[in-house]
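Two proteins follow. First one:
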Amino acid sequence: MTRNPLRLILIGVTVLAGTLGGLIILAPAGLYALGLRNVNGRPSPPASCHPTPTDRVLLEHAFRMSQPITVKPLSPWAFVNFILEDDSRDAAAGGVAATSLVAQHYNVQHLKDRRSIAWHLSGAALTIWITRHWSADQVLCAAVDVLRQTPSSRPTPISPD
């Protein structure tokens, strides 16, 4: 019994496309898990804090925002979408920058592997984790604390770009 070679090629292409599609869909979650595995522990949120108007102005100035900074929970897929949109003037961009600053500050002392790719992947993963486990006020208070500890006038947070 002979099979039609065109049919076999079509089946092969379909299987390959399905496999690649599945990998692309699952890649952000896998990279998120891999990034978190490189971080020893997780940061603790500040206890009961509410950012003052002065704190908010400090953050808006530090991240060059013209509107109040908002922090929204991210997923690995939303983070990829955020990177692709690349609108650094959006209030959510300020929230990601503030969260990235907190993640970067924690990662300085808590990474297992310090190579560049591991640093950035772990920073992105921890940024996602913090937005999902901390309140917006906790993120903003922690970012203000980091800014006040930073000797330079302009922080250099991990950019999602």
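Second one, unrelated to the first:
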Amino acid sequence: MSLCLRRGLCKKLLCLLLIAFPFPFRVNGAIQIVGEVEVRANGTKQVLPFEIKLGSSCQIKTTAKLPDTVEFITGFEDQDCYHLKRIRTESDLKEFGWVAEGAHPVQHYGSGQFLWLALCSGTFLDQLTKTENLTSNEFPIFDCFRKNPAFYHDDILVRIVRDNGRGELPKEVEFSGPPYVVDGKGKRTDLKEGRFLAAKYDVTRMTNRFGLNLPLEFRLVRYLPPGFKMTDTGSSVAEEFSGRVQSVETIDEPASFLPEFKTSNVEIIDSRFSNVTRGPELGYTSTNKQWLKRTDARLQEIVRLQKEHPKQRDKPQTISKTVKMVVGGLLVASFLGFIILAVSMHRFSKESEA
């Protein structure tokens, strides 16, 4: 699971401040934003339509149309983030779920995290006490943009530029990488250049709708450390996200912003209680098309059993591993483009000093 899930008390307190998303637009109900995201990495390109609902909370949906249609849907409630992956084939529909602590996307797919930063992060940013030299506890979303390559450690600093005012979205965000790299064996090598620009987000066009300043065109570019280049292209750019809003309209406030199940018996990986159980994430099945909230009696019983019997985790671990194996197989079969993209981002060659 993502390193974002293991941050400590500071992060937990910040998440508790973000139980609601009171977006400051002047409209009865909610708004729906439709557009597309283009993802480029190492010579490959994917274009993903997206749909975002903003109101008392928010929901982010992206769709990849490959031989099969793959939908990623992220919703929020209380201090938790709910992810659903839906795979449609000509004859079948499969769904897999993840639940994590955090009032922002913390794992699974970069496009959703990019869209959250661009269009849904205003209330989160309201809670910050500063806009420069933000650390992992203060701005944990940065993990999602430095996760690959894995030689980045936690030593990344963030600078945010945005207008003053409640709910304002960022105009620019810089992610400053550490003055060193660490290889797969844990060997640390200092960079003679010192800190480097690990990633940068900026807005190129904006509009004002319903009293909210919204970006119409925006992008995020992630860079490799000095001296590293992509193997196939020779570029220092590891990945680039470009977003474009196509329409903004009012809608009725949804009864829930959580992803809706279309099938029964959906297997879920739940990492919200790792600090309580002191073990791996929980694995269980939703049989009634409902997410299990923290206070659900069934979920509390699962947590209690794992806490009291830490060695008797065979079933949850087996379920969790099974889900991961199935998801991995489906990714190979129906999401090949993204696997190629992800694998290519790990292939770097040290720049010759000659």
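SUMMARY FIELD: The radius of gyration is 20 Å. The helical segments are 9-16, 110-119, 122-126, 143-146, 274-277, 297-308, 314-334, 336-345.
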